[in-house]
Design brief:
CATH class of chain B: Mainly Alpha
CATH superfamily of chain B: MetI-like
Oligomer: heterodimer
Number of strands of chain B: 0
Strand content of chain B: under 5%
CATH topology of chain B: MetI-like fold
Distance between the termini of chain B: 21 Å
Largest sheet of chain B: none
Radius of gyration of chain A: 24 Å
Number of helices of chain A: 18
Number of domains of chain A: 3
Structural class of chain A: alpha+beta
Order of helices and strands of chain B: HHHHHHHHHHH
CATH superfamily of the largest domain in chain A: Dipeptide-binding Protein, Domain 3
CATH architecture of chain B: Orthogonal Bundle
Number of helices of chain B: 11
Helix content of chain A: 25-40%
Radius of gyration of chain B: 23 Å
Strand content of chain A: 15-25%
Number of strands of chain A: 19
Chain lengths: 542, 303
């Protein structure tokens, strides 16, 4: 018995040790190595196959598109040195700099043509393809109705790229730094197919290159000497860790085993500001946490059920008392502060006292045929990162109050999202972060053409029509009106239940320099360095 | 436990039968007396009785429901706003959750132990009594299961079949029976050559009947001791699983989930870690004292 107890305790200690004290790979003498907590493991290192913010963070260091992020997340020239727009805004000409892949092959306009076609092709099955539907002919190519050559993207020369658009897209330079528009090395993809993205043969055009990936342990990147600005890059080796357990990661940052972690459990922020002064970095973020209702589940085809569930969530409690990290209760889907958009009107019930909302929710459920004798039983699938672990039990309790019996199923982030894309859920806890600063970056999610990332399979012809009108509308104010009307429809329909607007929260060791809190929460490692290192100023200047 | 379970034929049983007329002391009377003289064991029993009563009736008496979110009472310290042991990050009353957690943990301990008892005793008794190739095969099977790391085996079950509370009962019980079966088998081997078994066989009793009527009742002593030691081991195992997020699912609580959540916020809300840990320690110690006391009481040679 004693032996058994000791064994269990030893095992417990061992498991805790795995999460706690970790051995870090030794840094070669004279080099700069940084250890970054990245929340989850990537699903893939192929920019056309991945969708998560944690994957984007990794890809940012490896690949650079026509434009790239500066330290504040604003677009600056990337592979393209400069660009021109035709007066009607439909033709963009990009002039590329002299750049090389990490294996020495030049980066050409052909690589971009190849990449834009590849992400759209049905064979690639990219979950993100519909983001590129603003390119001329993209939707037809993506749906397999037109040959890939019909896409309005062509190389006018090895270093001149012409892109034709379906409709004016002033946000193009911002979208051009997004992972969906990254070039992939044509010569490698043609030779190895999907396996080009395996870490042992990974080829990059950015400041770093993936060299190894141990699942559940870390992804290792080393500096790419062929990057055009390599002389300005301070860091030599980058390690990304899947820091699923936020509190354990926080302790690792405190002990100096991690240089930063890309998440903080919200209700600890004020404590950490005192406990670890100088570490906590928060910033407003264009992001929304929401619940998606799976429309393939019969119960959720009834609008009244979705409305009742959305109404019964106490968002003020969640944002202001539970998380208290600066999040705001969300009654609309598009976060406040999105450029050129004043937002849709929140549903009428948003201003009601909570008891009235609960009463109305019960009434709606009763109308839909659910009540004490036939309670609605559902499952909420959610991510096991810090904040969803706090919020989901609160929502479960809120729903219990209106007689709904909800079960919680927790998964690691990348696994949860894979299940959502496969429609393997009833209610999904998801979050969406702007890909570019525009309301469309949020609203396109519920479009029927979006496919996999429209988790709940919401389909509404009127909604699709409004978004299309907005796309083709040159006048910014009228466009915003179309978008606001579309958003109102989605909220009225309770296609999703927005819960709170994000803030981004990073725990950054004060010994790291060049890290700037920003609206998009992208922090390329090329700008980072150690404080006091001779290269710090050079790296930060980019 | 009355002496009538002991079968005539065993020397002690026979003695007690004869002595019954003059109101003598049976083996079990002796054991009870020795147990009651053991101060630690008696303390353990009293404390455990209190804990069991609390676990059974406590959740009905607590002023708050274990899963009720009190939206204005987030992270209250002990004693604030009528929350005797404070509240957690959702404003749930810790006293209510602790009582519920204790109930769940004790229930898992009990049910899993009963499962292990049934499988273990049946398996061990059959193996020991039948002997030969059957014994070899059955005990090698136990050896194979033994060689699987216990916790990882349970985790594997959880991952394959999804975690629900019934499965935890079954999974832990299905692993815990191994030691039980070995103890029972060893005991059976010594019993099966005893005269009363020979006599039963000579009278033409079948194997099944002999196991059920003569072997199993005489195994009781060591089995009872082992059971009292299995319960805390199971509680600990469940807590460990819950600590890893594989145990009971929210909003249900067990001592393990309470400690796991408490450990997360220990700098901010130490009461969330301290109270469940205390209850856990007290429960486990009571069981272990009772187990040790019983062992001393039932096995007279060991004094």
């Amino acid at each position: 018995m004693l032996l058994r107890t000791l064994l269990i305790l030893a095992l417990a200690a061992f498991v805790c040790a795995c999460q706690g004290k970790v051995s870090r790979p030794a840094c070669p003498e004279g080099k700069v190595c940084v250890h970054l907590g990245n929340v989850n493991d990537p699903v893939s290192l192929d920019p056309h196959k991945s969708t998560g913010t944690w994957e984007h963070r990794l890809l940012l260091d490896n690949l650079i598109g026509l434009t790239q992020d500066d330290a504040e997340g604003k677009p600056i020239p990337g592979v393209a040195e400069r660009w021109e727009t035709s007066p009607d805004g439909l033709t963009w000409t990009w002039y590329l700099r002299e750049a090389y892949w990490s294996d020495g092959v030049p980066v050409t306009a052909d690589d971009f043509v190849f990449s834009f076609r590849r992400i759209l092709l049905p064979d690639t099955a990219s979950p993100y393809a519909s983001l590129l539907y603003f390119l001329k002919g993209a939707q037809a190519v993506s749906e397999g109705k037109a040959p890939k050559e019909s896409l309005g993207v062509r190389a006018l020369g090895p270093r001149v790229l012409e892109v034709k658009l379906e409709h004016p897209a002033p946000y193009f330079p911002e979208l051009a730094k997004h992972q969906t528009m990254y070039p992939v090395p044509k010569h490698m993809v043609e030779k190895h197919g999907e396996a080009w993205a395996a870490p042992e043969r990974y080829v990059s055009n950015g400041p770093f290159r993936v060299v190894s990936w141990k699942l559940g342990d870390h992804v290792k990147l080393v500096k790419n000497p062929r990057f055009w600005d390599a002389a300005k890059v301070c860091v030599d080796e980058v390690y990304y860790y899947p820091t699923n357990d936020t509190i354990s990661a926080e302790r690792q940052v405190k002990r100096g085993e991690l240089d930063l972690n890309a998440d903080i459990q919200s209700n600890r922020i004020s404590f950490l500001r005192q406990d670890m002064p100088g570490y906590v970095q928060t910033h407003t973020y264009l992001g929304v946490a929401y619940l998606a209702f799976n429309n393939t589940v019969p119960a959720f085809r009834d609008r009244r059920v979705r409305q009742a569930l959305s109404m019964a969530i106490d968002r003020d409690f969640i944002a202001n008392k539970l998380l208290r990290g600066g999040q705001k209760p969300a009654f609309t889907f598009v976060p406040p502060g999105v450029a050129g958009y004043s937002g849709a009107k929140a549903p009428e019930w948003a201003s009601w006292p909570f008891e009235k909302r609960q009463a109305e929710a019960r009434r709606l459920l009763a109308q839909a045929g659910y009540g004490p004798d036939k309670p609605l039983k559902i499952e909420i699938k959610h991510r096991n990162s810090a904040d969803p672990m706090l919020v989901m039990p609160a929502i479960q309790a809120d729903w219990k109050q209106i007689g709904v019996d909800a079960r919680l199923l927790q998964n690691e982030g990348q696994i949860a999202y894979a299940a959502y894309r496969a429609r393997d859920f009833q209610v999904a806890d998801a979050a969406w972060v702007a890909d570019y600063n525009d309301a469309m970056s949020f609203l396109y999610l519920m479009q029927s053409a979006t496919g996999e990332q429209n988790y709940g399979d919401y389909k509404n012809p009127r909604y699709d029509e409004l978004l299309k009108q907005a796309d083709n509308e040159p006048d910014a104010a009228t466009r915003a009106r179309y978008l606001a009307e579309a958003e109102r429809i989605v909220l009225e329909d309770a296609a999703v239940a927005p819960t709170y607007f994000y803030v981004n929260k990073n725990l950054v060791s004060p010994k790291i320099s060049g890290w700037k809190a920003n609206l998009v929460d992208y922090h390329p490692t090329r700008y980072l360095c150690l404080k006091g290192h001779p290269k710090a100023a050079l790296a930060a200047a980019g | 436990m009355s002496a009538s379970i002991l079968v005539p034929g065993s020397r002690k049983g026979a003695d007690s039968m004869q002595a019954a007329a003059v109101k003598g002391r049976s083996l079990w009377d002796d054991a009870r007396r020795r147990l009651l003289r053991n101060k630690m064991a008696v303390t353990g029993m009293v404390v455990l009785a209190i804990l069991v009563v609390l676990a059974v009736v406590g959740p009905y008496l607590a002023p708050y429901a274990y899963d009720a979110v009190n939206k204005n009472d987030v992270w209250m310290g002990p004693g604030q706003n009528g929350h005797l042991l404070g509240t957690d990050s959702l404003g749930r009353d810790q006293l209510a959750r602790l009582l519920m957690g204790l109930r769940v943990s004790l229930a898992i301990g009990l049910v899993a132990t009963v499962v292990s008892l049934i499988i273990g005793v049946a398996w061990g008794a059959v193996a020991g009594f039948v002997g030969g190739r059957v014994d070899e095969a059955m005990m090698r099977f136990v050896d194979v299961l033994y060689s699987l790391p216990f916790i990882f085996f349970v985790i594997l079950l959880m991952v394959t079949f999804g975690s629900n509370i019934i499965l935890i009962f079954v999974a832990i019980g299905a692993v815990e029976w191994l030691t039980m079966s070995r103890i029972v088998r060893g005991q059976t081997l010594t019993l099966k050559h005893k005269e009363f078994v020979e006599a039963a066989r000579a009278m033409g009793l079948g194997r099944g009947a002999i196991i059920a009527r003569h072997i199993v009742p005489n195994l009781l002593g060591p089995v009872v001791v082992y059971v009292t030691l299995t319960i805390p081991a199971v509680i600990l195992a469940e807590s460990f699983l819950s600590f890893l997020g594989l145990g009971v699912q929210p909003p249900m609580a067990s001592l393990g989930t309470l400690i796991a959540n408490g450990a997360q916020d220990m700098e901010l809300a130490p009461w969330l870690l301290v109270f469940p840990s205390l209850v856990m320690v007290v429960t486990l110690m009571s069981f272990n004292f009772i187990g040790d006391g019983l062992r001393d009481a039932i096995d007279p040679k060991d004094r």
